[in-house]
Amino acid sequence: MSLIPPTIEAYHVQHLPIVKAYADKIGLVAVINQLVPTEMAVDPGTIVLGMILDTSSGRSPLYRLEEFFTHQDTELLLGKTVAPEAFHDDTVGRVLDRLYEIGTMKRFTACAVRVDQVLGLDKRSVHFDTTSVRVYGDYLPPEDQQDQQEPAVPLTITHG
Question: Cα–Cα distance between 62 and 51 in angstroms, integer?
Answer without folding.
Answer: 8
